[in-house]
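To: structure desk
From: M.T.
Subject: fold request, one chain
Message: Could you run this one when you get a chance? Sequence is below, nothing fancy, just the single chain.
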Amino acid sequence: MSTADLHPMAAGHIPSYVTQADGSDFLLTFMFVFTVLVIVLIGVGYFTLHSIPEKIAHESNHPQFQLVGILALLALFTHNGLFWVAAILVAGFQFPDVAAPLRAIADAIRSLGNQRPEDPAPTQPAEPTAQQEH
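Reply: Done. Structure tokens follow.
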């Protein structure tokens, strides 16, 4: 488009963001695409942030993996950061297994109770009697 084709009252330089005569608006199209991309990236970042406790618990094969998942899901739906912090804390620390010694004691007692009566009980070595000495 040459300057001869322009209206005599038009400016010599028209910026690229001004709407063209055919109705195309470069700035509107660019801002629409940019806004959609920013919203998608914020969503991906938000979901990635909320999945961090589950990733931590899964990598360490955490015994409370389901609890961490529930807390992270509650944090996602309620937008309550306290649930997310609790999920991170539960995923980050291993609670001591206090039931393991009790299970071992219960298993030992159970195995003692399952012995058959015809099994001879361990006996003391026989003391020599008077007849065996002669």
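Reply (cont.): The chain is about 60% helix and 0% strand. Let me know if you need anything else for the meeting.
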